[in-house]
Design a protein that fits this description.
By secondary structure, this protein is of the alpha+beta class. Helices cover 33% and strands 12% of the residues. The longest helix has 11 residues.
């Protein structure tokens, strides 16, 4: 069964509605697949664009960013929120 993102009666719709009610400006869903743009992220780090966020360069962070499913084995969906 395909979940409709814009259907307010779906689980994703309910989560989005609650996120917006709590004041979040964005709410998105994605699969825990390796990101297609990971190589671009590595180049960005190499150029030093991460400013004072040294944790982005750690091996653990890089592995988790490249393979997000390793953070929570069995995870099916990642929910990302943005605060104003």
């Amino acid at each position: 069964m395909q979940i409709q993102h814009n259907d307010p009666s779906s689980l994703e719709g309910k989560i989005k509605a609650e996120a917006f009610r709590l004041g979040f400006s964005l709410c998105g869903f994605t699969k825990p697949d390796p990101p297609a743009e990971y190589d671009r992220f590595e180049k960005w780090l190499t150029k030093g664009h991460h400013a004072g966020m040294a944790y982005l360069q750690t091996v653990r962070h890089r592995i988790m960013r490249q393979h997000p499913e390793q953070l929570f084995p069995g995870v099916k969906t990642i929910i990302s929120l943005a605060w104003p």
